[in-house]
Amino acid sequence: MTSASGAELEQRAQELRDELAAVVTRTEGFEGWHHAVSAVPRHRFTPGFFLPAEAPPPQGMTRWEPVTSRLSPERWLTAAYADQTLVTQLDGEEPDWEAPHPHDGGSPTSSSTLPSLVLRMWQDADLADGQDILEIGTGTGYSTALACERYGSAAVTSLEVDTRRLEQAAEALYGLGYAPDLAVADGLHGYWPSAPFDRIVAACSVRTVPRAWLAQTRPGGKILTTIGGWQFAFGRALLTVHDDGTASGPLLPGTVSFMLARPHQAPAFGNPAHWGSLLADARPTPAQHGTDWLTDATVEAFFTRFLVQSALPTTQVTTVDGTTYLIDVTTGSTAALTSDGDEPHVRQAGPERLWERVEHVLEAHAAAGRPGPEAFCLTVDANGQHLVHPGMPVISMR
Q1: Boundaries of every domain in the chain
Q2: Distance separating the N- and C-terminal Cα atoms of the chain
Q3: What is the pTM of this model?
Q4: Which of 69, 107, 110, 248 is catalytic?
């Protein structure tokens, strides 16, 4: 690429960046981020990424097409400045962006989060000048750069568990003049060398809030994290750390999700038919206790699924040939739900009666008027992690 074409690319990138800044800072409260979005060149953090192909392969799985400046300069630059998530890694394998190839199937394991969500994350963390910030999950480094641009590099420490990811992020950050503290480390343990922090902000989901985060946050400081799980439901919490080492705070509205931290991802559970062989005789369950909470795409159903997941934190869900299985690999408990006409039936086995716990959560939530996430408080103490609502029994997430 000649210097003239390079100059043209940078000019086009600035135009697209200004358009992006105008779009993503329209939300009330985001105005202070306009300069940062306009200043940080996202394309420098995303030399390559995967986008879903318009025509999927015959098997019905997602076909991921590589997009780079060499393969398709305009598509690459336009996508880099669209308000969308860009997948930068599949199945933990680092791509060769000099000679990338398409992937059929595969699970995203690293990405550049859509800019509006990055701003939502930083905004919801209640940041202010002069605070010490720990970011869990550097990823491409784009979100790190935005925080550095807004609050200064000296305020930011960022951790990444993937060495190659951090190397690429560091090259882009340092090349642009940003100098946060960066480290290859498991973010679930925080980072004692730079502690204590005023804010810990996780760009990944966790099943339980690590106690190390509480210990490394100053009293009165806050932790913003997404609580995820093995039923693929998510809830966000903004916790305030107290003098006694406990923390509590509200769930936040919306359906934001991040990838689970790698140590918190679900184990393989085997063949559902093997688990099905353990099951006892079927009994009916009320129609309202069917699988709408699993299949409905509404915000309300998504949060109901989060409540069920919270009550059964070591349980996974899968559906095979019309039968929905709940499988708990830690206790050997399982349940299977099938429909016989209009009436669902359930069979259960093991020490934990999984479907009965589902029914209890659904009934309690309905009796309380189906409150949304902002009506719940998450508490973390020596006894674990708990969801609290005044009109419902406490849900212990352990």
Answers
A1: 1-112, 266-367
A2: 55
A3: 0.91
A4: 110
